[in-house]
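User: Can you predict the 3D structure for this chain?
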Amino acid sequence: MSPNPFLGVIFHWLGGLASGSFYVPYKGVKGWAWETYWLVGGFFSWIICPWSLALLMSHDLLGVLHQQSTSTLMWTYFFGAMWGFGGLTFGLTMRYLGMSLGMGVALGYCAAFGTLVPPIFKTVMPSIPVDASLLEIARSTSGQVTLAGVCVCLLGIAIAALAGLTKEKEMPEAAKKKVISEFNFTKGIVVATFSGIMSACFAFALTAANPIAEASRTAGTSQIWTGLPKLVIVLLGGFSTNFIWCLILNIRNRTGGQYFSSDPGTAFTPREKEMIIETAIDAPSEEMVAKIPSGNGSALQRIPMLWNYIFSALAGTTWYFQFFFYTMGETQMGKYGFASWTLHMASIIIFSTAWGWYFHEWRGSSKKVHLQIAAGIASLILSTIIIGLGTWLKSQGGH
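Assistant: Here is the predicted structure, written as structure tokens:
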């Protein structure tokens, strides 16, 4: 079956829809701390879904993984773990900036550095399985176009950040808190920068895992499903980082009982939250996106255990499907395959922005702010087109 780029674009947009929407089910979780519902959802995101679908849709998964070199498995796992650090603070970006601005800034960084990380590491470590180093890219026309797209991407980040700063200056405190209860532009930008840069490691993990996809194809897997075995190792790396941190928080915050008990006494109360020293690393121990309305233990008769598990599982499964569709789209892009990462980022930004407007995160802002955020998002989308053009020129054998 020959590649179908049009179908590939549709798959990438479906992946973006999944990524831009997965936080929404977490709003239904009540009485659980961040580390509890994040880890429950994470088991579905990083373990259950990738293994189940790879075993179901690909051939001889265990045999394919067994024949891989130590180097392939190590680099795939390592960069998956590095991506995990970005994921830990990604929710905090939503909490401080909201979906529209938070995802726009974090994913802007992710798009830019997802393009730059592989060639940078190729420059430092020539043995890494990447097509070209940063120096080689800069010397070619296609590479220069790609780097120009990265610059436009950073410009989009700056414009989106300006919109957030303008919003913070012109809106009264009560209005900001009404829309995004813990809006904090400075904290949000710092966390979004860290999260976006580290999250970009996912792009390199997928590149490092290409031998796994090729071995799966050789084993008889249909081309459209060959990316699924890659996700098993990449997401295992992300699981390791998140599991260790959530376990530490469960112990430190005494929230481990929430997995097993519906007793409202185990709920994470506002008083306990205030006792946490909040840093860029510690902050994920609190809620992301928005405060859980019934998070106070005294306000709950019983913690709705079944629904908490259902909502967390739904969120985790939705998250996984962004890369399920991503790997499908990547197989359909043919000579446009290099543009997959930027297409994915663009689709996430668009759908997350749509959710932000739906939840009225920019209500009360001036027309100036609305124009600024629109210009920022437009710049980010334009950057993905330019980067896609550069990678397409490369795929055509251009210099």
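Residues 269-298 have pLDDT under 50 and may be disordered. The CA atoms of residues 333 and 362 lie 36 Å apart.
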